[in-house]
Amino acid sequence: MARYESGTHACLEVMVNSRKMTLQAMGGKLGVSRQRVLQMIKKNRMYDVWVQGANERKESRRIESANQKAEISQKKELVSKICGILIQARDQKISEEPWPSRKAFEYLYSRKLQRKGTRVNYGNMKKLLEKYQEGNASLTQLAEHSGIREPVISCLLKKMELPTLVIKYRKGRRRFSHSELEFIGRCSNTIMYSTDISYFIGCGGYIIRRHSDKNGGSSLTTLFNSELNYYRAFEIYEAKKLRFKDEDICKLLDMGEKAVEYAFENQKRIENVIRHDLKVIYREKMPERYKFLF
């Protein structure tokens, strides 16, 4: 007990009268616990002064917190006013735009507010509605003008409650000549599936399936998360022929390194299949692009 008597009373009195220090802070200065500091305050009859100081500190913290909240509230109010002015200016500018621009913005902005994604951008949506406004446009014509696929257009018009103004008609099936049907019919004797064959002869896979016995799909589609099939492998070999590096081929064709490595490791087998099918389809009239395989 003796070590607290010499000079401790005066030091403790100064700290308590300052009304700014907590028990923990005073204990740190004196080298004792805060419980011991409280005992010393009570023993030296300074408890009332300490309680008053504690209340003042609590009130000071409350006032400081209230000021911070008020400052934050003022900032939020200012930001809200600025946003209101900007939104008003935006709405004014949008209202002066033609109907396609207004309708495209309203749809895309509403999807953003609902936190729902969209598969089209403002430019394509504007082109779609410009063509739509002309009237008498089929889904095919809208798709060609806007660059949006027909199923997506149909869904968009339904969501915007605009389906009735579009003429929906199905284009008649193209009639192929006898020689064209014979050419397509050769696909029945190929190893590759219609997905790959359609690339090499330049027509849709559904046409091949309709006019021949060839099935859909691709024998290499199941590898590397559907990144690689025969026509993609052909593109890899074509890029290599043009002296592209492997890493550049990956970027150019948007393919993974493992898929490209697999194509090169199995190049001989894959090229044999492609060569066989091209011979079956084109016979002696081989296009110039495919001749490097032979």
Description:
The chain is mainly α and 294 residues long. It has three domains: 1-96, no CATH class; 97-159, no CATH class; 178-293, no CATH class. Helices cover 65% and strands 0% of the residues. The protein contains 15 helices and no strands. The chain has helices at 8-18, 23-30, 34-43, 47-95, 99-113, 122-134, 139-146, 150-159, 178-185, 194-201, 205-211, 230-241, 246-253, 257-265, 267-282. The longest helix is centred in the N-terminal third of the chain and has 49 residues, at 47-95. It is elongated, with a radius of gyration of 39 Å. The model is unreliable at 1-6, 164-171 and 216-223 (pLDDT under 50).
List the helices and strands and how they pair.
Elements: H1 8-18, H2 23-30, H3 34-43, H4 47-95, H5 99-113, H6 122-134, H7 139-146, H8 150-159, H9 178-185, H10 194-201, H11 205-211, H12 230-241, H13 246-253, H14 257-265, H15 267-282
Helix pairs in contact: 2-3, 5-6, 6-7, 10-11, 12-15
What are its keywords?
mainly alpha, single chain, 3 domains, disordered N terminus, 294 residues, 0% strand, 65% helix, 15 helices
Report the C-alpha radius of gyration, rounded: 39 Å
Q: Describe the oligomeric state of these chains in a short phrase.
A: single chain
The description of the largest β-sheet is:
none
> Can you give the helix content as a percent range?
55-70%
Give the termini distance in whole angstroms: 104 Å
The low-confidence parts are 1-6, 164-171, 216-223
Following the backbone from N to C, one meets helices and strands in this order, namely HHHHHHHHHHHHHHH
The helix count comes to 15
How much of the sequence lies in strands comes to under 5%
Would you tell me the structural class of the helices and strands? mainly alpha
Question: What is the mean predicted local confidence, pLDDT?
Answer: 77
> Any idea how many domains?
3
Number of strands: 0
Q: What coarse outline follows from CA principal-axis ratios?
A: elongated
